[in-house]
Design brief:
By secondary structure, this protein is α/β, with parallel strands linked by helices. The chain has 16 helices and 14 strands. A 6-stranded parallel sheet has the order 2-1-3-4-6-7, with helices on both faces. Helix 1 links the parallel strand 1 and strand 2. Helix 3 packs antiparallel against helix 4, helix 9 packs parallel to helix 10 and helix 9 packs across helix 14. The protein is globular.
């Protein structure tokens, strides 16, 4: 089996599945680029890049021999499991498909683009034999958008299961002390991303921060970000000492432990936080054709001005936690299956052939 990974979302979602495969003794490799490579840099299943192999051949022949074995395992994998966000993944998906292999696409997001032309998943239509999504909404959407000829299964999002574990690893009292949060004040966590829409959203947050004097304001960084943009904006608005950028070694999931409210521009983190009982507010613009499951069900507002954001924050502060739906009710409401790691692992295991697949040629890659 070969996993082909590019971004943080799909990588973190499939890592628990890979752990289950390890426990089951399943042989697999990981072809990773970009953020996924950084997250899995020292994972023994990762297939080295061509540059890494070239260095090893010059300086470490025994290591180079092992690397070649990894590549051979990748090229002969009987099943490909790929994210759906990059040309790198598309090339590998096509390679395995052209060689008669099963190619399973995993879509990790809770939101999706309604316009087929704007949806990168559409480019994989001829490459996949199976598609896995996290929600019933997305499964039905992709069936209508050209994937109805293959099995499309809503099996959940494993990241939702790892968040409580990450939160349990931290002590909220100790974390409050480490971050020097003012007791008695609500803590608002702005979840960092990257890109033009995010930058507009963060600017809006900074414009609003001065009107939120009675709150601890935190910002978590995306794995791709170095904090330069956020620091520059905080300085530009004179908010030093008002907004705290969290150290990158502190995971967003851990920060949720001390947060009373989450502000974000993206549907994936919003849904993850909401299912942990957090109050969620979307900040800034979104793509016109982007479907947001929380917004579609009236469960979280989107604010486009400082005035509307201040109003939404103050309103959320008045909402009693006890009046919110239970986690089980929220899963059902959003059409998200429980036990995603077990479901996805079982699905992939059911696709493995009973014996070693026939060799394939690397010439088509």
């Amino acid at each position: 089996m070969a996993f082909v990974l590019h971004d943080a979302g799909e990588t973190r979602a499939l890592m628990p599945v890979m752990s289950k495969l390890d426990m089951a003794g399943v042989d697999y490799v990981v072809l990773a680029e970009s953020t996924a490579k950084g997250l899995l840099l020292h994972d023994p299943h990762r297939v080295p890049s061509a540059a890494e192999m070239a260095r090893a051949e010059q300086n470490a022949p025994r290591l180079a021999a092992w690397m070649k074995q990894q590549w051979n395992r990748a090229l002969h994998a009987s099943l490909c499991v790929t994210g759906l966000s990059s040309d790198f993944q598309k090339r590998w998906a096509d390679f395995f498909r052209q060689n008669g292999r099963r190619v399973v696409g995993y879509y990790d997001g809770f939101g999706f683009r309604l316009n087929r032309e704007n949806n990168p998943v559409s480019g994989f239509q001829a490459s996949l034999t199976d598609l896995i999504t996290p929600t019933a909404d997305s499964a039905e959407h992709f069936k209508r958008q050209g994937f109805g000829h293959i099995p499309v299964s809503a099996l959940g999002q494993p990241t939702l299961e790892s968040i409580p574990a990450a939160m349990n690893q931290s002590n909220p009292s100790l974390l409050t002390q480490q971050l020097v949060l003012t007791p008695g004040k609500p803590t608002i966590l702005f979840v960092g991303q990257y890109g033009a829409d995010y930058e507009q959203a963060f600017a809006l947050f900074c414009q609003t921060a001065a009107q939120l004097p009675n709150a601890n304001l935190l910002v978590s960084l995306h794995p791709k970000a170095n904090g330069e943009f956020e620091t520059r904006m905080i300085q530009q608005f004179g908010l030093q000492g008002k907004i705290q950028i969290l150290p990158k070694e502190l995971a967003t999931e851990q920060a949720l432990l001390v947060a009373d409210m989450v502000l974000t521009n993206t549907s994936t983190m919003a849904t993850q936080a909401f299912l942990q009982g957090e109050k969620v507010i979307f900040v800034g613009p979104k793509k016109a054709d982007l479907y947001e499951p929380l917004q579609a069900r009236g469960l979280a507002p989107r604010c486009l001005t400082p005035e509307s954001l201040v109003t939404a924050v103050h309103h959320a502060m008045q909402v009693e936690q006890a009046t919110l739906p239970s986690q089980s009710q929220l899963y059902s409401l959003l059409g998200i299956p429980h036990a995603a790691t077990e479901r996805i692992t079982a699905y992939l295991l059911s696709l493995l052939p009973p014996k070693q697949a026939n060799p394939i040629s690397s010439e088509t890659l």
